[in-house]
């Protein structure tokens, strides 16, 4: 996460866990951005392929 050991020691447990949760959320995208097979089929039908 980029904190030094001294910074971690100076934090409360709440501060550390909040930083950890934010780090995980920022670095673990929920949506891969890829289409599912059904979405691909729907798009192909819409385009007329």
Please, could you describe this protein's structure?
This protein has one domain (5-47). By secondary structure, it is mostly helical. The model has no long low-confidence stretch (mean pLDDT 90). It contains 3 helices and no strands.
Instruction: Characterize the overall form.
Output: rod-shaped
Biggest sheet: strands, sense, closure? none
Please work out how many helical segments DSSP would assign: 3
The overall average pLDDT, rounded, is 90
Spans of at least 5 consecutive residues whose pLDDT stays below 50 are none
Strand content: under 5%
* N-end to C-end Cα span: 47 Å
* Helical percentage: 55-70%
Topology as a string of helices (H) and strands (E): HHH
Overall radius of gyration: 21 Å
SS-derived structural category: mainly alpha
């Amino acid at each position: 996460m980029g904190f030094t050991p001294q910074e971690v020691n100076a934090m409360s447990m709440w501060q550390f866990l909040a930083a950890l949760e934010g780090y995980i959320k920022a670095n673990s995208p929920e949506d891969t951005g890829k289409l599912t097979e059904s979405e691909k089929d729907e798009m192909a039908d819409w385009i007329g392929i």
